[in-house]
Write a structure and sequence with these properties.
With 228 residues, the protein is mostly beta strands. The strands form three sheets. Strands 5-4-7-8-9-13-12 form a seven-stranded antiparallel sheet, with no helix packed on it. The longest helix is centred in the middle third of the chain and has 4 residues. The chain is globular, with a radius of gyration of 17 Å. The protein starts with a strand and ends in a 27-residue tail after the last strand.
Length: 228
């Protein structure tokens, strides 16, 4: 799959021997969790088997590992967003259709930074959540998520999923339909800019739009760039 290989002598081999195992992400996209409890965001292993095994456990704020143009084959990062209070141990696995966790979590994210310095970030419904065989496919998730940019210059806003306002597979703002009929939106973050995904539980004190708090976090301590 493009990942690590164990040869006949039991030695680990990389498909790109001149590069390190991990590289820094660009550091300009984060997540702000306004829901009670944690949010487990699970990144897929790429290159590798593309399972959602790389956890980011967001208690308050965290930086997501968005790759730059030098990353393997110029690929983007892909993430699954579990409901509030699902642990990484329970949510960052393949899972099953018994629960809306892991591969069956309701929302997906994606992002990459290109050579011009612009960053493209995606928010969408998970096609697996919408499949006819998924028993909860018509159930609205109990949490919302929106893209908020820190400063001016972003293109593609608003871009949000809010089940308190809309139904399954619907978004706030312009959207397009992709694989499996899943709706998504894409925001372009300008060079030097930053953005975050804001997650809130419906009906909690932290729910609602984060636009009025768009200046929030600008003076916060800058986090280290996570590794991809």
């Amino acid at each position: 799959h493009g990942g690590l290989f164990c040869d006949k002598n039991g030695n680990i081999k990389k498909p790109f021997p001149d590069k390190p195992y991990c590289v820094d992400g660009t550091g300009n996209v984060g997540c702000h969790n306004k829901a009670p409890g944690n949010i487990a965001i699970c990144q897929t292993v790429l290159p590798g088997n593309e399972a959602m095994l790389i956890p980011t456990d967001v208690q308050d704020t965290a930086t997501l590992a968005i790759p730059g143009p030098e990353y393997w084959a110029g690929t983007a990062a892909h993430f699954y967003v579990n409901p509030p209070r699902v642990s990484p141990e329970e949510g960052c696995i393949w899972g099953s259709s018994e629960k809306p966790y892991g591969n069956w979590s309701p929302y997906v994210l994606g992002g990459n930074t290109v050579e011009t310095g612009e960053t493209f970030i995606k928010l969408g419904w998970n096609p697996i959540y919408l499949e006819p065989a998924t028993p909860f496919r018509d159930e609205k998730p109990t949490f919302s998520i929106e893209v908020v940019c820190d400063g001016d210059g972003c293109n593609g806003l608003p871009c949000a999923i809010d089940p308190s306002q809309h139904g399954v597979n619907e978004l706030v703002g312009s959207s397009s339909v992709g694989a499996g009929g899943a709706a998504s939106c894409v925001v372009t973050v300008p060079k030097g800019g930053s953005a975050r995904y804001v997650v809130a539980e419906l009906g909690s004190k932290g729910s609602g739009s984060d636009k009025e708090n768009n200046q929030e976090g600008k003076g916060d301590k800058k986090e280290d760039k996570p590794e991809v």
